[in-house]
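Issue: copy button drops trailing tokens. Both records pasted manually instead:
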Amino acid sequence: MSGTQRGTGTPGPMLAQPLRPPTPGRALAHIGLFLLGALVAVAGTLVQAAWFPGGLLLALAGAVGVFLGGAYATRSRGGAMAPAAGWIVTVILLTTSRPEGDFLFGAGGGSYLFLFGGMALAVICATLGAGRQPRLGSARLGK
């Protein structure tokens, strides 16, 4: 049947479609979103400890804004996953202490809330982000 639904001439399910490499613009957008997620992680790391309850909420709200903004900007869940990956990688790298004894995360509860709360919010935003919608004219699928 080569990718069409039984004699209708319309493409079959998305999972049955062949994979194509991303366009250069989309690849560049995802790289930019990855770096933006890393930048928000560094800023959130500094803000969450400075003003404890408000800074933590501000840092997590900024992370959610980048995750959902990436999803809506690219109209795909990959747009939420790119900044989430940048955020998670950066936060994990910032949790390690340096040989001099310097570190950015304290042992307090706020740091753990930022770390695990941000990871949970990244998963939630990547799951609920703007997924692909069918481009059919009818509101009902299959019509």
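Record 2 (pasted manually too):
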Amino acid sequence: MSEDRVMTIREMCDAFEVTPRTLRFYEQKELLFPVREGQKRLFTRRDRARLKLILRGKRFGFSLEEIRQLLDLYHVGDQQQTQLQRSYEVARERLNDLETQREELNTAIDELQDQMKWAERMLASMAQKKSAAE
């Protein structure tokens, strides 16, 4: 595919595994800016790059507002230094959040496993007592 070729909404959906509703939502939130030809939306190379970054940001747990702000920094005019610096800061915060969530999840898993082992022992003991009584 030519880098400068525009893509229809269907082609974008197929290429990025998103729904038309998703693309329209991102357009409404001013994250994407497709060219309009009547009712037709045509997505440029810039839109494709932005969508790729949006989807990556969502996968990492960034809010749409954070993603929008980061994308808006592209045009600051400092060879993306500001955008890269802010992206790094947001990513560092998100990584800290994810690591904390992972620790909390590991603790919850350990506690649940302990409770299940206790329940297994209790059930086995009850079944043993029931068998002995019969």
